[in-house]
Amino acid sequence: xxxxxxxxxxxxxxxxxxxxxxxxxxxxxxxxxxxxxxxxxxxxxxxxxxxxxxxxxxxxxxxxxxxxxxxxxxxxxxxxxxxxxxxxxxxxxxxxxxxxxxxxxxxxxxxxxxxxxxxxxxxxxxxxxxxxxxxxxxxxxxxxxxxxxxxxxxxxxxxxxxxxxxxxxxxxxxxxxxxxxxxxxxxxxxxxxxxxxxxxxxxxxxxxxxxxxxxxxxxxxxxxxxxxxxxxxxxxxxxxxxxxxxxxxxxxxxxxxxxxxxxxxxxxxxxxxxxxxxxxxxxxxxxxxxxxxxxxxxxxxxxxxxxxxxxxxxxxxxxxxxxxxxxxxxxxxxxxxxxxxxxxxxxxxxxxxxxxxxxxxxxxxxxxxxxx
Length: 372
Prior knowledge:
Number of strands: 15
Number of helices: 15
CATH architecture of the largest domain: 3-Layer(aba) Sandwich
Shape: globular
Radius of gyration: 21 Å
Helix content: 25-40%
Structural class: alpha/beta
Number of domains: 2
CATH superfamily of the largest domain: NAD(P)-binding Rossmann-like Domain
Low-confidence stretches: none
Distance between the termini: 23 Å
CATH class of the largest domain: Alpha Beta
Largest sheet: 8 strands, mixed
């Protein structure tokens, strides 16, 4: 198969769809890999590393799209990239379609087969291709939150861990999944007072056993969110409904009850955000203030640490990339129900139920769409 790796063009996005080691695995198995010039520069991998791994370097994204059968990316295709996709392409990347009607419309009209990292599953019902970036984002959320709490950034001037004689910051984490767990690790390590909220009692039991007395676990409902957000210095939004738009759990009314300079970090912003006042930001302009509360809503948080993120992502995606290249997209998905869960759009049909519901498309089950 001919596999293309364009350079990411989203604002301050430096990750790359395939690192040289992944390219070597593919070329070793007889596949052809075409990489856009300088695609790996952001993670310290120059073109010579890709050539040594067996890739062919092409100067432009247009040439990559024209040559390749499968496009492997990191972030959702931007408008100029979507215009280069057609029915001959398989796109394998993060998509996050539910809150993104323009992207979905373009992909439906373009006819490509579009497989989303974030909805591929495994035998445990987990999301193995979302997990690596959720781990990174969870840990980064605390770094970002600590930075935003600094007075120069509009924050209240609170140090997360406090100092002897001065109490630490209160960190409230909404959602006890991968993001929440990793955020808690960092916050606890920095000495903050940590509250994790979730609606799954088994998740709360796991967190309680893992962190012992170092955190407080709270069942998440309207009342408990209102209570704990009120006196939080930093709130991390880490809720996830796979493939669907995130629920709005912190409202604008809550902001008026918080101390001025407190911080909201919305890790769910890729799925529309879980705070009512959230809107996507970039690494160039990561924050804004609403009612005195600092909002950090960067839609590609792991892009801040692209080297760590790209290698972590490739560790998870490579087995699926190899299967798609060996068997072709259709057969690979028919053979693997977990990969089939990743199919969001195929030949003009929306094949992921939550996306179809949220955006008003007719839902066509993935297997049915592939076998029409």
